[in-house]
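Many introductory courses stop at the sequence. We go one step further.
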Amino acid sequence: MVQSIPQLLGSDEFIKRYGDDERYELIDGELINMEPTGLHEQVAAMIGRKLNVEIDRQNAAYFIPYRCLIRLLGTETAFRPDVIVLAQSQMVNEPLWKQEPIITLGASIKLVVEVVSTNWQNDYARKVEDYAILGVPEYWIVDYLGVGGREYIGKPKQPTITICTLVEDEYQKQLFRGDDFLVSSIFPELRLTAKEIFAAVN
């Protein structure tokens, strides 16, 4: 469930008032109440666990923070991704990281996962555009309920994972369902099917 609270905020004010509150993110100054469900959290937790195992297995210099905001500099927008994989080596370049878990540079981010809820338009349209501009190399849209628009997940609508891979400055999208193995440029040896992720809520 997502409800908008009709109140415009600047990024600084949002971070001061809601930076530690997992329920909110900011889009164009608008406070968005994300109201994640328990099932949404199960899916996000399962993906985080699988990616942490892969980070360990590869001995990659990546980590997944428990809490993190992505602040888009020069805008009044701050996203709160469901799962984010960060490059350890880039944290020294992040201007706010030592004080707060806030990322401002695309170079710090390896992968973002958004688990779709009723605000699917933001995940499929707005965030695709902003993450591409930021230079996030890989973005997963995990639609475990199959609620996204037919132009995004096809007809008949069904649970779908869309993996967006950045090519130059635009995302190339690939859809995964059922027994399809996910194809990740960040984790090329990952052996994980769409069905295994969706089983987190079954």
